[in-house]
Amino acid sequence: MKKIVALSLLPLFAGCMDQRPMEMSAQAQTELAAAIEGRTAGAAQSCVSSRDLRGNRSAGEGAIIFATAGRNLIYVNRPAAGCPVVRPGLALKTRTTSTQLCQGDIVEVFDPLTGFSMGGCGLGDFTPYRRLR
After folding, report:
1. Of 10, 11, 24, 55, which has the highest C-beta tally within 10 A?
2. Contact between 92 and 51 (Cβ < 8 Å)
């Protein structure tokens, strides 16, 4: 009986492990295109130093754009299952034991005034985009 139950749950877990990027709406694609316009993509990284990050915003539920201090560099993260939209008035809360934010880390979107959680997601790789000079 235990084997039948375990096998019947297998499709649920397989869906959770699917790593294809979430499809983005046309509006989200436009927002992301505007953010990376005039920039060149670098090789994806599994971790970035959280000390270098200065803010974040969403491009729909399919991408989180992390700003850095110099403005010449941003990181785009595409959580595989999507992530609640970080809109004005909301923030990301991370729980990490290191000075880096890494692929697989869980972030929570929440309202800092009320503490109400909008949900969370697991981060994907970080793709750096540098401004062309």
Report:
1. 24
2. no
Which residues are 93's β-sheet partners? 108
Residue pair 62/113 in contact (Cβ under 8 Å)? The answer is no
The band of 23, judged by pLDDT with boundaries at 50, 70 and 90, is: confident
User: What are the CB-based long-range contacts (under 8 Å, 24+) for 25-29?
Assistant: 25/60, 25/62, 27/60, 28/58, 28/59, 28/60, 28/61, 28/62, 28/63, 29/59, 29/60
Of 39, 91, 33, which is closest to residue 59 (Cα–Cα)? Answer: 33
| Secondary-structure percent of the chain, ordered helix, strand, coil, rounded to 5 | 20, 35, 40
